[in-house]
Design a protein that fits this description.
mainly beta, eight-stranded antiparallel sheet, 1 helix, globular
Length: 485
Amino acid sequence: MKKILLIFISLIMIASSIFAGAPGVNPQNGGFGINMASTEYNFSIEEISQGQDSNITWENGDYSGKHTVALGGVWNMKSEFTVTEEGGWFSEDKGNWNNTECNVPMTITVNCPNGFFFESISNPGARRPFALLLILKESYSSSANQSGINTNGTQRLYLLQEGENVIKDIIYSYTKPRTEKVEESKYEYCQYQYMWFDLVLCLPYDENPNAPNGSYVSSSGNMIYNGRSYNLIEADDYSAVITITVEWNGQSAEVTIPLSGYYSANISSMDTTSSLSVRPMASASNLSINSMQGRQVDIANINFLSIAGNKYIIDEEGVRDHWVIDLSHSGGGYWVYRYPEKRRQPKYHMFLSASRNPFDSDPNGFRLVHRGASSSPMMEEYIGFDLRVTTNQTSNDSDKVVYDFDGTEAVTNNILPENAIYIPFKGFGGTGGTVWFAQYDATVSIIMDQQSAPTMKSGVYEEEVYVHIVTDGEENITTGDTIYR
């Protein structure tokens, strides 16, 4: 095993591919390892007028990929012009424009189930507010999938925060379609329009008279925003789950991103490529041993995301594809070679156990133990249980995969448990090319053992469950795409 990840708060993503003439939304790198006390996300949000042309800056400059948590919009809206009279050059009085798609409004919704707050899972009272800035841009091109061409220099700015999480009726407004002569005898003109947005994280704050210079958080972890006080506790499990939905022309695309972060005077950064989110349900803290024995009860959601797969080309002989004329080059040109795109990426596996250390097995497995019991509880002071993990990647219940764990699982002599869950990388299209990530989304259920005798002692019973993500090296895969060089 080359690497072990033992993380308790992290990220999940359901990504949607971006197809021609359809909405799309993809995650970006800015959602990982966010410092809750950072001053680098303090964009000016108080004076934003929704939907007005604006440039977004913060005190140290423009926003960047570090601040961007998602990219979405509508791609390849098609405008067409057909000339109704033969002969002559293009004239708008000799034909008709069809801009129907460009006049269809886009709606963007951002939901955060616990409100627009980062919150520590281990310390629920420790939280800080956040906002999201949506920067809408527009462009057009004579070819599909070229959203970066002829980009509008202005941008519309929208603020998403608690109580304002929906933006409706966003309509393309940039330019009239460009025209090109396609055939001598028949004139058909078309152009592709794009409405696309960056979703930027903002961590607002007020000046704090008790904070040291260069910070807005006091030595005791206190911060202020909008006149209200918030207390931060040192932890690396701050999380905020956001679901972004883009609707257009009867279609929709959606991605769920559990943003992850930390607050610590001693930690300068977190893992910015992988993240795990374990979110207990209310039922997890209110189980009745008497009524639930032998029954399956949902108790938590598990979500994992990694963007650690890096693109590369394997050193092998390429296929000669085409000749490029270049008089400045020796021989008047050069050959371009075609290579299959391959990637090297970690092999992730997940398992649940009763042991904090993924290499040590707990022979007792999962069991709820009476809060007042000793390290060697009596039979009437504990009850065993299994955990069932059910994948959520399919809407068809009959296709869902189920994994059962009894808590004794561990990595032994570099051998994974037989029931470890393999998490492969997947690719989804986007404006910047294919986005590759390993993602797993599941529901955890508890199944208590049947207890016949003796009668159990009354009181509160508890158990800690550990979710381990391990890697056993790397693997090379061929994506099916082609690289030219």
